[in-house]
Write the structure tokens for this entry.
Amino acid sequence: MPCATFGLFETMFGGISGEVLWKPVNSPLALGVEANYVIQRDYDQRFSFLDYKTFTGHASLSSELGNNYLLRLDAGRYLAGDYGGTFSLDRHFNNGWLVGAFFTLTDVSAEDFGEGSFDKGFHFRMPPGRILGKPSRRGYGLTIRPTQRDGGQKAGVPGRLYGSIRDAHQASLNNQRARFWE
């Protein structure tokens, strides 16, 4: 399943992105490849850009571990031009909440990166529909990082394929089967 994105990805980068995902419906594993050509946005947050341009790309392995745990391993090139890998573990709750943690180790030195010498953090997502009583697939989330630098960080391209198809996976369909008959 291929996907392409073009535009302003996040507060600091815009560009063009492509992604390919292989995910059999009844398998817990998924393999993906993404490639991004990004340009740093100007600090005024309008449609102007700075001179920094780079190519990033990652190969990903995702695995549903059971009990709604998702393990993801990414390896590739990050925004600062460094190479390495990211380990992420998320828990998806049946009420729509997501809680997870991640860390990234790359070839960037501790002197260049600073505190901790690697990227790490927590993220969560909450479904406002459950609180407001209006069912929705939308969610609002936050990623908390102690250090905000480009070392070990991927381009924040919205709408990644694995998250988009996760609800259609065989395990998710089996978990929702009882709701169909209610």
